[in-house]
Amino acid sequence: MITGGRVAGPDRLLDDGWVAVSGGLIKQIGSGTPPDGHHVDVSGALVVPGFIDTHCHGGGGGSFSSGDPEEILTAVRAHRRHGTTTMMASLVSDPIRLLCDQIAALRELHEDGEIAGVHLEGPFISKARCGAHDPDTLLEPDTATINALLAKGRGAVRMVTLAPELHGGVKAVRQLAESGVIAALGHTDGVEEQIRPAIDAGATVATHLFNGMRPLHHREPGPIGALLDDERITVELICDLVHIHPTVLRLAAVHAGLSRTVLITDAMSATDAADGSYRLGRLEVDVSGGVATLAENGSLAGSTLTMDTAFRNLVRGAKLGLLSAVRATSSKPAELLGIADRTGSLKPGLAADIVVLDDDLRPSKVLRKGEWVAEVGTATVGS
User: Fold this and answer.
1) Cα dihedral angle (102, 108, 109, 115), rounded to 10 degrees?
2) SS3 at position 252
3) In a 10 Å sphere around its CB, with 0-12 CB exposed, 13-18 middle and 19+ buried, how is residue 55 labelled?
4) Other CB atoms closer than 10 Å to residue 32's CB: what's the count?
5) Distance in angstroms (rounded) separating the CA atoms of residues 269 and 187
């Protein structure tokens, strides 16, 4: 029985709230005098659903591209300590053979419930907007290659990011959507007229809006204008206040609204680890002051963000409310992944995935499936 805090219910904050947990599930929430049981007093704290990160490449020194189960679990645990109880494992562009090997390694952890699925951020992306992806690995999408990647995942591949202006791009979006895979648009140099057909074909996500795409222009809205203004698109926002200025973050989140905004980390292996030299896929990355950039040209190379910091940044940096942050870090990502009937909200019957945040909105306790996570810690980057 978690008692004495402000509990972020599905539609309002409950002062002097409580959450009853049993058998790994939430049994009841309320305010005032709690039922009998073993009480864990969190007086004055904010109690929110566990965070869900739909776009993350690693952490704690571990990379999801490594193919090493122990290294992958190191990354998962690093983010779990910061309140991320559910996460997708994102892979950067690599040769198809290597991607298949990486998917196979992640597939086992997906089957074990350690990750919610695999996100392929490439290789079907624009060389002009490839960011921290090796341009030599990029391909135009084709039916056989996509089928091979999905087959290797056996249901683990849940999202694929592509640039729709590539030859075969719109056809690939349709193929993914018909296969039950989330088609995301990103790392694109397309103009609006190339983005709209992909949305009509079934694309539903904008991969880290603003980053890795043609800029917004008042005479040519490009992908940003098309994706932000279409009610069918959920927009990912990297909420580290480095990739996106707080004012731009607020403008995007307010325009898209709570029903379409998802905060992500786009975190790489240096997250929750020391500054230094790292790799993102095949490229060398320098991390200084928690900011990751390509050693070759200084381009941003993912982030060292954790979801608790993203939550805090939306509230304090972008000046949006607590319930907006809960929606963007938990309930909307759960809806996007089709798991809202299992997690993402503090509702009876859902998994006991819970984060207790102190007065500074930093995690003091994390519960995942009813089990306390050890060594809960907070990040300093972007705070």
Assistant:
1) 80
2) helix
3) buried
4) 9
5) 21
**Residue matched to tokens 């020391």:** 274
Interaxial angle between packed helices 69-80 and 96-111, expressed in degrees from 0 to 180 and rounded to the nearest 10: 60
39-53 exposure pattern, b = at least 16 Cβ within 10 A, e = fewer? ebebeebbbbbbbbb
Residues 6+ apart with CB under 8 A from 52: 84, 85, 86, 87, 116, 307, 329, 330, 333, 334, 337, 343, 344
- Please tell me which residue in 189, 266, 272, 308 is annotated as part of the active site: 266
Query: CA-to-CA distance for 275 and 320, rounded, in angstroms?
Result: 30
Rounded CA gap, 160 and 137, in Å? 16
Consecutive 10-residue runs of the chain (383 residues): their mean pLDDT?
95 95 97 90 96 97 95 97 98 97 97 97 97 95 98 98 98 98 98 98 98 96 97 97 95 94 96 92 90 91 95 95 97 98 98 97 97 77 39
> Catalytic annotation on 101?
no
Structure tokens at 1: 């029985």
Q: Which residue has the tokens 């079934």?
A: 202
Cα torsion at 158, 304, 278, 156 (round to 10°)? Answer: -10
Place of tokens 């049981």: 37
Long-range pairs for 288-295: beta carbons < 8 A, 24 or more residues apart: 290/380, 290/381, 290/382, 291/242, 291/381, 292/268, 294/132
